[in-house]
UniProtKB/TrEMBL annotation:
Listed InterPro entries: Amidohydrolase, Bact_exopeptidase_dim_dom, Peptidase_M20, Peptidase_M20/M20A_hydrolases, Peptidase_M20_dimer, Xaa-Arg_dipeptidase
Protein name: Peptidase M20 domain-containing protein 2
Domain Peptidase M20 dimerisation: residue ranges: 219-308
Source organism, top-level taxon: Bacteria
GO CC, one annotated term: cytoplasm
GO terms, molecular function: dipeptidase activity; para-aminobenzoyl-glutamate hydrolase activity
Similarity comment text for this entry: Belongs to the peptidase M20A family.
Database matches in CDD domains: M20_ACY1L2-like
Biological-process GO terms, alphabetical: folic acid catabolic process
UniProt xrefs under SUPFAM superfamilies: Bacterial exopeptidase dimerisation domain, Zn-dependent exopeptidases
Amino acid sequence: MCETRDLTEPVAPNPAFTRHLAAATQEAKDTMRYHEPTQAGAPEKLSGRLEELVDSFREDIVGLSQHLHAHPETAFEEYGSVDKIVEILNKHGLEAEKGVYGVETAFESHLENGEGPTIAILSEYDALPNIGHACGHNVMAATGLGAYLGLAALVKEDPEAFHGTVKYIGTPAEEGSSGKEVMARGGAFKPEDMDAAIMLHSYGYDLADQIWLGRRVLTATFTGVAAHASSQPFMGRNALDAAALAYQGLAVLRQQVPPSDRIHAIITEGGTRQSIITERAEMKFYVRSKYPDTLKDLSRRVEKVLKGAAMMTDCAVELDWDYSPATLGVRTNDQLTSRWVEAQRKRGREPLPLGVVSEIIAASTDFGNVSYRVPGIHPLIKVGAEDEALHTRAFAKAAGTPAGDKAAVDGAYGLAQVALDFMTDAKLREAVKEEFEAAGGTVDVEHYFDD
Ligand SMILES: [Zn+2]
Ligand SMILES: [Zn+2]
């Protein structure tokens, strides 16, 4: 049967596959449970008091989430957001330094209580252009703040609660700008400065862990020779042809890469007039893969396609990799994750294990680069409905609802509890470190793709 339509509107994508994915997720959700933790964590009495204290900051936590939601600021422009967070810290007698690690909208505050381990709690607060807090960073910022306030209050009333340092770090420009890697290159997230780093992300499910893909950006510029497209095309060398062949070449490559690899390409410049053989064409790419070494391999293969396209068309090609720093996938620390799960269960949440939500549904985050420097976690907390995806207007709306407020407080307690467990349980710290070392230890992220 031949389908006919008037071609004035695109065809809406068939949601069949999404429905199958949702059904598989539902089935896994009903049957899979995160394993029981192997370490004890903090003493029960201390944990109970911490939970009360975090809850007592509900007004500040929800207030911040709502304030950021109403005043979204995009990457590197989050001045008002930082001012608001620091204002709340100051109100509770906590100092913070703005503009740290060479990034104006980053900040850091320290809670020092003698000798001991150091853990960092991270807050993201950047929004997306036009659609506001569609990634729920307003909620996430509030969880970091609430966790830090709770721990500060705990140690204030009981100086023996834990010893060591809790750092609260504001990390701007996650969206498309790898803000944490920019900060890292300015001196942040050094293994000698912290033993672990924790944060969470907003989502449509409570997930203990999820796959995040590493990501690199690339610009390719093809240069040809301009000529009259009608009278002397044989004297031209067509840069748009090179771009078209590169685009097709990548389409062919896609079938022979691991299923979690992704290549997204756009042509940003393709000529100036139909009567001129295109002299200059420009393309931009995202290249994503699950592991650092597979991302390196995919990068090489993409490069070969682009060079091949230049070769076929007698054009020159210039490749500009990582104009914004590359990010790696998240290396989750299971020992810390199991403490997160325990804390969330106290709040009536059941964070689901890896594999419940298909790994096909995977994006990227700059926290990956932190997690290859120090042990870390980046669990997901339910803010929106299960079928509301990140970066949609629906999710932006959800991030400002009572469900978002509840996630902010539950998440704040969760992060605070993981930090307290880490500070008070030496065996847990040992297990965290052991797991991190067994996974390959600290990686030189900045220079990983140099060769
Ligand atoms: Zn996002
Ligand atoms: Zn996000």
